[in-house]
Amino acid sequence: AQSVSQHNHHVILSEAASLELGCNYSYGGTVNLFWYVQYPGQHLQLLLKYFSGDPLVKGIKGFEAEFIKSKFSFNLRKPSVQWSDTAEYFCAVNRVTGGGNKLTFGTGTQLKVEL
Amino acid sequence: EPEVTQTPSHQVTQMGQEVILRCVPISNHLYFYWYRQILGQKVEFLVSFYNNEISEKSEIFDDQFSVERPDGSNFTLKIRSTKLEDSAMYFCASSESPIPYNEQFFGPGTRLTVL
Questions:
Q1: A107 - beta bridge partners?
Q2: In chain A, what's the furthest Cα-to-Cα distance?
Q3: How far is B6 from chain A (nearest CA, A)?
């Protein structure tokens, strides 16, 4: 069965600091990779996704993620965070074949950005 | 922008009671999902639904759970006899098609509290 690990459960940063949130998955086959964000009181929203091609994926609000197949990783980055990035961030995967569409999520990382 | 909506936002029930959680997926979407998140734990897949039948379900989705699309717009999750451990946030999601590349759009969730 596939699983997703997010190593940082709580991250506190000052505005303008750089962000990197780790995500590793375990599954030997081909996967699609996603980062979702949940702002306080709001829906889960898609930040970015990787299906194939360029392993460096750019998403909304200045976020990007890099897929490193050899490390089974899909880390999320942002060069300079803002107070409005305070939210919970979820990494998720689904299998390209044989796994249906179900998303398998990591435990989430709560990011707090301080002014 | 079209959104997935869910009602109620919060449901409190007594153990052993039946609850129905309601979702209105995005109107041109054909593939529907329920996920849940127990407080402090991962978002977990429950069930996916396509073409008026269950496509996939997790081991959590036992005989106490059922899903239905009673009309052209609603998608419901019924828990027949609630247990304390069913207390969680339940998220509905929808996607345009069953292709794994398609983004799943999430609703705001229903917080279920079983007393």
A1: none
A2: 46
A3: 11
CB atoms within 10 A of CB A53: 8
Q: Is A86 on the interface with B (CB under 8 A)?
A: no
pLDDT tens per residue, range B81-112: 999 999 999 999 999 887 767 789 999 999 99
Determine which of A96, A103, A107, A110 to mutate to test the interface with B (most B C-beta atoms within 10 Å): A103
pLDDT tens digit sequence for A34-64: 999 999 888 899 999 998 899 999 999 999 9
Contact between chains at A101 and B42 (C-beta distance less than 8 A)? no
Query: Does B33 sit within 8 Å of A45, measured CB to CB?
Result: no
pLDDT tens readout for residues A1-18: 779 999 889 999 999 999
What is d(CA B104, CA A97) in angstroms, rounded to the nearest whole number? Answer: 17
How much of chain A exceeds pLDDT 90, in percent? Answer: 77
